[in-house]
Design goal:
The complex is a heterodimer.
Chain A (H helix, E strand, L loop, with lengths): L2 H21 L3 E11 L5 E11 L3 E5 L6 H9 L6 E6 L2 E2 L4 H6 L1 E4 L11 H11 L6 H10 L15 H13 L5 E5 L7 H16 L3 E6 L2 H7 L2 E6 L2 E7 H8 L1 E8 L15 E4 L4 E7 L8 H13 L4 E8 L2 H12 L1
Parallel strand pairs in A: 3-8, 3-9, 6-7, 7-8
Antiparallel strand pairs in A: 1-2, 1-4, 4-5, 9-10, 11-13, 11-14, 12-13
Chain B lengths: L2 H17 L1 H23 L11 H32 L2 H6 L4 H30 L7 H25 L3 H17 L12 H7 L3 H14 L6 H25 L6
The chains are: A alpha/beta, B mainly alpha.
């Protein structure tokens, strides 16, 4: 993807995101001017503004060290903010921390656990810690939904990494939170388990739980999220509906495998955005994916006619759509 | 007040003690018994009575204090260091609990454990030497205050320590020497005059002296001084913990 797309992103989507927050339903989490400066002077977060809407799955994307975990840690109470404000359902996370934290469940990135406690005990501990009355029926439901019921008497130390991750999710759900933070939920998890995890998250959303997940697996955001926020270098670079994001930024490519390699693009085709790849064996036509733009279907048939007329023969053709990954890489690279 | 959270931390910590029953209770009891065999029976039989109390009985309060201090510090420091070390502290920090509740849960559990241990050691001691307790309520008060104060100190050490070495260093280099030199095994009257004065700067002297007074009515310093000393130390520890949570020192960046 070229730089103009990234530029378009920067100029077009930011106001769009802002407009969104104006007319949006009351946000479940409202972050305003959040800044984190460490004693070393390093600024991990730079005046972050962010609104999370009730019931959505929000994916926070960003490279390592972008500030994803710091942002989550401040909202959840693990790190003190240097400046700014966070409200959870209207409750300030500092002055009204009890009401704010009661609604939040956190699944941390690191697989931390009390090695010698059993699954049942460690999950029950979490519920008690949040001040909720013991409820073995609820714990049982949570454990069953995460396929942990058979393991309830096992000590944490005997569990595999994937199982430990499930237990951490169970712990976060033990007190019936309305908001769930998942910090890199599928890091180091095999494909099957990842799919299971996605199902769990979706069913939580169906129950009305707001889910905020950080990831650097683009696939995950693409698969799960309703909205996507990109954070880079301590700043929110973009917040957008996933579908709109794909529509606005997605580009399609038509690849033609040529019968004979071309040294250069014929002059009759020069007005098309064409390029040659693989030593002239492949002709690539790049166009916007959204159907509302004039360039698409009509121009493809015109292009194919012109190619035919230019005497270029091809043996196969296929299209591909740019993924979030490309969008993301371009955003981050541009801002770097 | 989130009493349920306090109770949850408290019970979870005590459950850890039950899981590690051998090292939590049995080993201190065995090591105390060894002290009685060596100091009480073997050496003690050659030492005269101290202020009318047989040497074996004389050292009981000091030994209980020695165990109480070291166990309070190590229980409490480990109790908070371990979740910090493994990372499970995230959960406590993200829960709707106040700092006071965190301290109550962790320090309460540590103090309870060392209190139980102190009583077990007393019972053990009664098998070896004739035990007399003149002021049982004062004895319990000293026991409880010391357990709480040194569990608070342990909590501070657990927050301060970034590794296992630091966790060991305070009990090893400060608590144990101060206890040994604090009149656990002797009356400070037995020391040369200069050392008697030096010893008065050792806070443990006041603890042991007050505690011994509750048993036999004999003391190196006045009971009031002992009580004052432990309350001052308690206040210091509470102030330090208040500062830790206010600044987030080593726990919440």
């Amino acid at each position: 993807m070229s730089h103009d797309i990234a530029d378009a992103t920067a100029t077009e989507t930011r106001p769009a995101a802002r407009a969104h927050t104006l007319q949006a339903p009351p946000s479940v989490i409202a972050v305003q001017g959040l800044t984190k400066r460490y004693a070393s002077g390093f600024e991990a977060l730079k005046r972050i503004d962010l609104d999370i809407q009730r019931g959505e799955i929000f994916a926070l994307l960003g490279p390592n060290g972008a500030g994803k975990t710091t942002l989550i840690s401040i909202i959840c109470g693990l790190v003190n903010a240097s400046d700014g404000q966070v409200r959870v359902n209207g409750h300030d996370i500092v002055t009204d921390y009890r009401a704010a934290r009661e609604q939040i469940g956190l699944v941390p990135q690191e697989l931390t656990s009390d090695a010698f406690a059993t699954v049942w005990n460690t999950v029950s501990f979490s519920r008690g810690l949040f001040g909720k009355r013991a409820d073995s029926a609820h714990i049982e439901r949570v454990l069953r939904s995460l396929s942990l019921w058979d393991k309830r008497r096992n000590k944490m130390i005997t569990l595999s990494g994937g199982m430990k991750r499930r237990v951490l999710i169970a712990k976060a759900l033990a007190h019936e939170p309305q908001i769930l933070f998942l910090d890199e939920p599928t890091a180091g998890v095999d494909v099957e388990l990842r799919r299971d995890m996605w199902d769990v998250v979706r069913s939580l959303r169906d129950q009305g739980v707001t889910v905020i997940l950080t990831t650097h697996y683009i696939e995950e955001a693409e698969e799960m999220a309703d909205r996507i926020g990109v954070i880079n270098d301590g700043e929110i670079v973009l917040v957008e509906e996933k579908a709109a994001l794909m529509r606005q930024l997605g580009r399609k490519r038509l690849r033609l495998d040529l019968q004979a390699p071309l040294a250069a693009i014929p002059e009759t085709l020069a007005h098309y955005p064409l390029s040659l790849a693989e030593d002239g064996h492949v002709l690539v036509y790049t166009y916007a994916a959204s159907s509302d733009e004039h360039s698409t279907p009509a121009s493809i048939s015109a292009l194919l006619n012109d190619i035919e007329a230019a005497g270029v023969r091809f043996k196969d053709l296929h299209t591909e759509q740019s993924s979030l990954e490309e969008i993301f890489v371009n955003l981050v690279r541009k801002d770097a | 007040m989130n009493f349920r959270a306090v109770g949850t931390i408290y019970h979870f910590e005590l459950a850890r003690a039950w899981r590690t029953l051998l090292q939590s209770l049995v080993s201190p009891v065995i090591s105390t018994s060894l002290y009685f065999v060596v100091f009480g029976a073997a050496i003690g039989s050659r030492i005269q009575e101290v202020e009318g109390v047989s040497y074996g009985a004389f050292i009981v309060p000091g030994l209980v204090m020695l165990m109480l201090l070291t166990q309070s510090v190590s229980n409490a420091s480990f109790g908070i260091f371990f979740p910090k070390f493994t990372g499970t502290i995230y959960e406590v920090l993200s829960a709707p609990v106040s700092y006071l509740e965190i301290v109550l849960g962790y320090v309460g559990a540590a103090a309870t454990k060392s209190l139980i241990l102190g009583l077990i050691i007393l019972v053990t001691a009664s098998f070896f030497v004739p035990l007399r307790i003149d002021h049982p309520l004062w004895m319990l008060l000293f026991l409880a205050l010391t357990a709480i104060t040194f569990s608070l100190l342990g909590f501070i050490i657990g927050i301060w320590a970034e590794g296992f070495e630091k966790l060991q260093i305070v009990p090893l280099l400060i608590i144990t020497p101060l206890t040994f030199l604090g009149g656990s095994f002797y009356s400070i009257d037995m020391l040369p005059p200069v050392w008697q004065t030096v010893t008065l700067f050792n806070p443990v002297v006041y603890l042991v002296s007050g505690f011994r007074w509750s048993f036999y009515g004999i003391s190196d310093v006045s009971v009031g001084a002992s009580l004052l000393m432990i309350l001052v130390f308690l206040g210091l520890c509470l102030a330090l913990i208040g500062w830790i949570f206010k600044t987030g020192y080593n726990i919440k960046p």
